[in-house]
Design brief:
The complex is a heterodimer. By secondary structure, chain A is of the alpha/beta class. Chain A has helices spanning 2-15, 19-33, 57-61, 78-90, 174-177, 186-196, 231-244, 296-315, 337-342, 351-364, 367-370, 391-401, 421-429, 431-434, 450-461; strands at 98-100, 112-119, 145-148, 156-161, 182-185, 211-223, 228-229, 267-278, 281-288, 320-327, 331-334, 372-379, 404-410, 439-444. A six-stranded mixed beta sheet of chain A has the order 11-10-9-12-13-14, sandwiched between helices. A three-stranded antiparallel beta sheet of chain A has the order 1-2-5. Chain A has a three-stranded antiparallel beta sheet with strand order 6-8-7. Chain B has four domains: 1-164 and 260-290, no CATH class; 183-248, no CATH class; 332-449, no CATH class; 454-541, no CATH class. In chain B, helix 5 crosses helix 12, helix 8 crosses helix 9 and helix 13 crosses helix 15. Classes of the chains: A alpha/beta, B alpha+beta.
Chain lengths: 462, 543
C-alpha cells in the first residue's frame, strides 16, 4: 500500500509539482508512513474523566434506577422552540436553538436520528490557556487531571481514541439523564430543516425522470355499461334528463315512479389503468477520508451529509436510496452510514478515483434511467491531482446524468484559505458557471458551526 | 411528588437522633419526597427547586461541551436543597438499608448547609417560598410583557455568574459594628476639625471634657459625652447619619447593581419592570454561589458521615456488604479524574487523624526528620473538633490549598494525570505526570469554579467599559458576543470589554508537528478590547 502511494507520488513528481504541493503531499505521506497509519483504527474504551462538578448525589447514590435518555420534552415542542427562535431573529437577536446531536442508531439501514434541541447560555467564563490555536494538538489541556493508583511518573496508564466523541454517543444525557431528547426519524428531521430553516423545496427541473408505474383502480366512469353502478351520478343524470323533458317541476313534489330512465343515464365505474408518477432518488455521499481530513473537517462534512440526507428523505417522501463512497487515493463503497461516518485512514488524496467509482456504479446499475441522482462530495480540498486533469473529465461525465452535484470543501487549515486544489481547478474549469444548474461548490472554514452547515446546504441545493 | 412513607420517615428520624448524638447540628424539620423520572425531568433543569421561575432554556438541553464543562457548572443539583425545612429527594423503591445510608448522607448535607459560614446569607429565609413568589411575579410579568420578559431573563442570566457574592457575605463576617465609624470618632476626627473648624484650644477643651467624663463614669462616659454633644450641636446626629450612609454607598457594586443603578435605559419609567426581573435572577444566583464553592467539602462531609454513622447503626446489621458495594462506588478514587466525594472524605479522615495525633501544630510542622514525623503522636484526640471547625469555616479553595500536603498525596497514591496525543495510535494517552503535592494541589485548584472578576466604569461618551481583571486566564471567546449583547441591551448603549488573550502563534509553529520533542511554547499575552455596538461585535488589540 505504502509502495503504491510512493509510486504514485513519484509519477506526480515527474510531471512537476510546486513547492507548496510538495509540502502538502509530504505531510500526508508522512502520516501514512507511520506505523499503523494506513490501517483502519480500532478503538479502545477509555472514557474521558468526569469533571469535579459532574458528580451528583442522584447519580452516585441511586444510579442504576434512571434511564439515560428520556424521550419527551417537558412543555414545549420542538416546533414551538423553533418558532421562538425565528421570532428572535425578527427582534434582532441571533438564534439560540441548535439542532444538535444527530445520532445514527444501529448499524444497518435504520434511519433513526435523534434530534436534541440544545442551546448555550453564553456568559463570561474563564477559559483554559491554550498555547496553540487548536486545542487538539499539543500537551492536552490545562494542568492535567486528577488520578490515583500505581504507576511511575511518566508511565502511560490508558488511552482514549481521538475521535471517540464523534462516534455517535453525542454526549446526550450527560450528568444523569437530564437530557430532553425528542426522538424522530430522518424524515421528521428533514421536515424541520425544510420548514424551520427555510431550506428550498426541490424544483422540477424538466430533466427529472419519473418512474411510471401502473395501478388499476375503479376510477373511470362510463355511461351505459360497466362494472359497478354509480348510483349517485346515475340519479343526477336521470334528474337532468327528466328536467329536460319537463317531467320535474320546481313546485310539484317529485314522484320517483314517474321518472323516465334512458339507458345512457346509467353511470358505471370501470376498472382502468392509472399512471402513477413517482420520483425516486439515489444519493451518493462521497467523502474524503485521507489523513488531512482528520478532526474537524470530517466532522463538518459528515454532519452536513446527515442533514442533506434527512432533507432529501423528506423531499422524496422516503423514496431515497443512499450510496456511501469513501476515498483516499483509492475509492471504495461502504455499506452503511455507520462505517461511512467512522472510518478513517491516513492515506493520500485523489478525488478522481471516487468520481470514477460513482460513474461506474451509475453506468453498470443503469441508475440514470430510473432515478434522480444526487452526488454530494465532502473534502478538505486537497488533491494530489493538482490540476484536476483526471478529475474534471469524470466530473463532466457526472454532470451529464446528475440532478445536482454538490461539493463541500471544509478547509483543514494547513494550506491557505481559498486556494485548495479542488477549489482552484473546479473554479478554473468554468463548470461552475456553465453548469450552474447542476454543480455547486461551497467552501467553509473548519471552525464553521451548524448554522453555517445549513447555510451550506441551502447553497448546495437551491 | 409525594412524601416518603411513614415507615421511611421513622427511619429518618432515627438517623437524625444518632447524627445529633455524634455532634451534628441541624434544624429538626425536614421534608423528604419521592421523585419519579418524570419529576426529575422537570426538576433537574430547575436545579431541583420545584418553585424556581420558568424559563424556556429549561426546556432544552443546555450544551456542555465536555472539556469546558468543569469551568462553569451551572447546575450543582443535589439530593438535598438548602431550604427551610430542608427538602430531599428519593427514589421510590430504595431498600431500607440504602435509605439509611442516603439519609445519613443527606443529614451530612443539611448540617453543612446550616453551619458552614459560606451559606450564612441563606440562613435567614426559606428559598423555596421566596422562589415561589418570584415565580409568580415572573409569570405575571410574562403575561404582560410576553417574550421581552424572556429576553431580560436571558440577558440577566448572561451575567449571573458575576454577582458580588463575597461582598454580600462580608458583613456577616463581622460580629459587631466592626470598623464602622463610631459617633465619637466622627465627632473628633471629622465634625470638629472639618465641619466646625475649631481652634486647637477648643479641640483640646473638648478632649479634656471627654476624658473627665470617662474618668468619672468609666461605663457610661462615652454615652454621656455624646448626649452632651448632641445637646450642644443640634445638627450632629443628622451629620453623623449622613456620613454613615455615604460610607455605605462606596461599597463595591456588582455588575447587576451597577447596571440597575446607572443604566438610563433601565431607569426609564417604562422599563422599571426589568429591574425586578434582574433582581430575581441576581438573588437566585446568589443562593447557588456557596454550593458551587463547597462541592468537595460538602460531598466529603456528607460521605464521611454516611460512612461513620452507617457502620455504627444497629438497625441495619447484615447489610454491611451491600453497603460496602455502594459506598465503594461512591467514594473510590477514579484512576483518572477527580471525585469530590472521595477526595473530600479522604481529606476529612486525614485531618481527623492528624489532629488526633496533634500534628496540626507548630511542633509538628517544624519537624524535619522523617522518622520522628511518622512517630509523632501527642494523643490529644482533638480530631472531631478540628474537622467540625473545618466544616464551619472553609470553602473548597481554602480547604484544598491549606490541607493537601505530600503526606496526603503519598498516603492515597494520588497523582496528576497528563494527557498527550499519540499520533501513531490516533489516541489520547493518559500518563502519570507528577506525584508532587504542589502539582496536585495546583491541579485541583485549577479545576475549581472561579468566575472572572469584572470592573465597571462609565466613559465620557456614556460607553460602559468592562475591565476583565487578568488572572492568567482568557475568557471563553465564543461566548463573549452573547454576553456582551445582553449587557449592551441592559445598558442601552455601547459596551467595551477589555480582556487579555494569548497572542496566536505564528504560522510556522503550527506546521511543526507537536509530537517531536517540543519545548513548552512561551505564552505571550496581549490586551484586547471587544466593542459591542448596535448588536455588532468588533475586536481590536490594545497597545
Amino acid at each position: 500500500m505504502m509502495q503504491k502511494l510512493l509510486d504514485f507520488y513519484r509519477s506526480l513528481q515527474e510531471k512537476g509539482l510546486t513547492a507548496e504541493q510538495e509540502r502538502l503531499i509530504g505531510l500526508e505521506l508522512e502520516q501514512a508512513a507511520r506505523p499503523g497509519g494506513l490501517d483502519h483504527q480500532s478503538r479502545q474504551d477509555f472514557r474521558r474523566p468526569k469533571s469535579l462538578y459532574a458528580y451528583s448525589d442522584l447519580t452516585m447514590l441511586e444510579e442504576p434506577l434512571r434511564p439515560a435518555v428520556l424521550s419527551l420534552s417537558p412543555t414545549h415542542s420542538l416546533d414551538e422552540l423553533l418558532d421562538r427562535d425565528r421570532q428572535r431573529e425578527e427582534d434582532g437577536f441571533p438564534r439560540k436553538i441548535r439542532i444538535g446531536k444527530l445520532i445514527k442508531q444501529g448499524r444497518n439501514g435504520d434511519d433513526k436520528v435523534v434530534v436534541v434541541p440544545t442551546t448555550v447560555e453564553e456568559k463570561l467564563y474563564h477559559d483554559q490557556v491554550r498555547a496553540r490555536e487548536d486545542g487538539e494538538d499539543g500537551e492536552g489541556e490545562g494542568g492535567g487531571e486528577g488520578g490515583a493508583g500505581e504507576g511511575e511518573e511518566g508511565e502511560v496508564i490508558g488511552e482514549q481514541p481521538v475521535r471517540e466523541e464523534t462516534g455517535g454517543q453525542g454526549g446526550a444525557g450527560q450528568g444523569g439523564g437530564e437530557g430532553h431528547e425528542i426522538e424522530s426519524d430522518a424524515y421528521e428531521m428533514g421536515r424541520i430543516l425544510t420548514e424551520q430553516f427555510q431550506l428550498p423545496n426541490l424544483r422540477d427541473k424538466g430533466k427529472k425522470r419519473s418512474l411510471t408505474r401502473y395501478t388499476y383502480d375503479l376510477t373511470d366512469k362510463n355511461r351505459g355499461f360497466g362494472q359497478i353502478l354509480d348510483k349517485k351520478a346515475t340519479l343526477r343524470r336521470i334528474l337532468q334528463t327528466n328536467i329536460g323533458l319537463g317531467r320535474v317541476q320546481a313546485s310539484v313534489p317529485i314522484d320517483p315512479y314517474n321518472l323516465l330512465i334512458s339507458p345512457d343515464d346509467r353511470v358505471y365505474r370501470i376498472l382502468s389503468k392509472e399512471k402513477d408518477f413517482e420520483s425516486q432518488a439515489v444519493v451518493f455521499f462521497v467523502r474524503d477520508y485521507s489523513g488531512s481530513m482528520s478532526g474537524k473537517p470530517t466532522e463538518l462534512v459528515v454532519a452536513q451529509h446527515v442533514l442533506i440526507y434527512s432533507w432529501l428523505i423528506y423531499q422524496y417522501q422516503n423514496q431515497v436510496k443512499t450510496r456511501f463512497i469513501l476515498h483516499d487515493t483509492d475509492a471504495r463503497e461502504v455499506d452503511d452510514f455507520h462505517t461511512y461516518y467512522n472510518l478513517r485512514v491516513a492515506g493520500g488524496t485523489q478525488v478522481a478515483a471516487a468520481y470514477k467509482l460513482v460513474n461506474n456504479i451509475v453506468e453498470t446499475e443503469n441508475l440514470e434511467r430510473d432515478y434522480n441522482i444526487y452526488i454530494f462530495h465532502g473534502t478538505d480540498g486537497d488533491d494530489w491531482d493538482t490540476t484536476g486533469k483526471e478529475t474534471l473529465p469524470q466530473l463532466e461525465k457526472m454532470l451529464t446524468y446528475a440532478n445536482r452535484v454538490g461539493i463541500t470543501i471544509a478547509e483543514n487549515g494547513y494550506g491557505i484559505s481559498g486556494s485548495s486544489e479542488v477549489e482552484k481547478y473546479v473554479r478554473g474549469s468554468g463548470l461552475l458557471e456553465s453548469m450552474r444548474h447542476l454543480l455547486r461548490l461551497d467552501v467553509m472554514s473548519k471552525d464553521s458551526e451548524e448554522g453555517r452547515l445549513i447555510e451550506g446546504i441551502r447553497k448546495l441545493t437551491s | 411528588m409525594e412524601l416518603i412513607s411513614q415507615h421511611a420517615k421513622r427511619i429518618m428520624e432515627g438517623c437524625k437522633e444518632r447524627a445529633r448524638d455524634a455532634g451534628l447540628h441541624f434544624q429538626n424539620e425536614s421534608l423528604e419526597y419521592i421523585v419519579t423520572n418524570r419529576d426529575m425531568l422537570e426538576l433537574s433543569p430547575k436545579v431541583m427547586i420545584p418553585t424556581l421561575y420558568d424559563y424556556w432554556v429549561q426546556d432544552v438541553e443546555v450544551l456542555k461541551e465536555s472539556g469546558r464543562y468543569e469551568l462553569y457548572p451551572s447546575n450543582p443539583y443535589e439530593t438535598v436543597i438548602n431550604t427551610r425545612p430542608a427538602i430531599s429527594f428519593y427514589n421510590d423503591n430504595n431498600p431500607d438499608w440504602l435509605n439509611v445510608m442516603i439519609f445519613y448522607h443527606v443529614i451530612g448535607h443539611i448540617d453543612f448547609f446550616q453551619n458552614n459560614l459560606f451559606f450564612r446569607h441563606t440562613w435567614d429565609y426559606d428559598f423555596a417560598s421566596r422562589a415561589l413568589s418570584d415565580k409568580r411575579l415572573i409569570a405575571k410579568l410574562r403575561s404582560e410583557k410576553g417574550r421581552w420578559l424572556d429576553y431580560v431573563i436571558e440577558f440577566s442570566r448572561a451575567i449571573d455568574n458575576l454577582v458580588g457574592y463575597f461582598t454580600l457575605l462580608s458583613p456577616y463576617a463581622r460580629e459587631d459594628e466592626g470598623r464602622k465609624l463610631s459617633r465619637l470618632d466622627f465627632f473628633f476626627d471629622t465634625f470638629l476639625q472639618n465641619e466646625k473648624k475649631v481652634s486647637t484650644v477648643e479641640y483640646i477643651k473638648e478632649l479634656e471634657k471627654y476624658n473627665a467624663l470617662i474618668r468619672k463614669h468609666p461605663e457610661e462616659g462615652e454615652f454621656l459625652f455624646i448626649e452632651d454633644v448632641k445637646s450642644r450641636y443640634s445638627e450632629f446626629e443628622s451629620r453623623y447619619q449622613k456620613k454613615k450612609s455615604g460610607e455605605k454607598s462606596t461599597e463595591r457594586l456588582d455588575i447587576f447593581q451597577f447596571l440597575m443603578e446607572h443604566s438610563e435605559f433601565l431607569n426609564r419609567e417604562e422599563n422599571q419592570w426589568m429591574l425586578t426581573v434582574m433582581e430575581v435572577v441576581r438573588s437566585t444566583s446568589m443562593y447557588f454561589q456557596p454550593q458551587i464553592r463547597t462541592k468537595i467539602l460538602n460531598e466529603g462531609w456528607a460521605s464521611y458521615w454516611h460512612e461513620t454513622l452507617f457502620l455504627q447503626d444497629d438497625r441495619i446489621r447484615g447489610h454491611e456488604v451491600d453497603f460496602a458495594i455502594v459506598n465503594a462506588k461512591v467514594t473510590s478514587m477514579p484512576r483518572v479524574g477527580l471525585n469530590p466525594y472521595a477526595l473530600g472524605m479522604r481529606l476529612f479522615s486525614y485531618l481527623e487523624d492528624k489532629a488526633n495525633k496533634g500534628r496540626i501544630s507548630m511542633d509538628f510542622m517544624m519537624l524535619k526528620d522523617k522518622e520522628s514525623r511518622q512517630k509523632f503522636d501527642t494523643n490529644i484526640e482533638k480530631g472531631r473538633d478540628f474537622i467540625f471547625s473545618v466544616r464551619e469555616n472553609f470553602a473548597d479553595s481554602m480547604f484544598v490549598n491549606t490541607f493537601i500536603d505530600q503526606d496526603f498525596v503519598d498516603l492515597h497514591k494520588l497523582f496528576v494525570a497528563g494527557k498527550r496525543l499519540n499520533k501513531e495510535r490516533m489516541a489520547w494517552q493518559y500518563y502519570v505526570k507528577s506525584r508532587k503535592a504542589r502539582d496536585y494541589k495546583e491541579m485541583v485548584l485549577e479545576s475549581l469554579y472561579h468566575p472572572p472578576s469584572i470592573q465597571m466604569q462609565v466613559l465620557a461618551d456614556n460607553t460602559l467599559q468592562l475591565n476583565h481583571v487578568f488572572e492568567g486566564k482568557p475568557l471563553v471567546q465564543d461566548y463573549i458576543k452573547g454576553a456582551l449583547l445582553g449587557i449592551e441591551y441592559l445598558w442601552g448603549g455601547q459596551v467595551y470589554l477589555d480582556t487579555s488573550e494569548v497572542v496566536p502563534p505564528g504560522p510556522l509553529s503550527q506546521l511543526e508537528g507537536p509530537d517531536e520533542g517540543h519545548a513548552q511554547p512561551e505564552i505571550a499575552w496581549q490586551r484586547v478590547r471587544y466593542r459591542m455596538q448596535d448588536r455588532k461585535l468588533s475586536r481590536k488589540t490594545l497597545e
